[in-house]
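Comment thread on ticket #2218

A.B. wrote:
> Attaching the input chain for the structure job we discussed in standup.
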Amino acid sequence: MRAAPVAGAALSLLLTPDRSVLALLLALFCGFFLHIGASGLLPESHRAYPRPSTTIATLLGAGFLYVVTMLVR
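C.D. wrote:
> Ran it. Output below, let me know if you need it in another format.
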């Protein structure tokens, strides 16, 4: 299992995906990680720390992501 990161890095030097395929893969992985965060991690953090500061931090983080996304366009 320790060779997997090295093999992945070596494989990335040999294979170069097309830009449209790369964009699709990035969108897929981003959606997957957002789903994990929204369905598992976020409710668990609110269950573990039921304070207003947790909700405020969540909303500030979502707002920050929105602003960064708008600036990158």
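A.B. wrote:
> Thanks. Noting for the ticket: Residues 3-72 form one domain.
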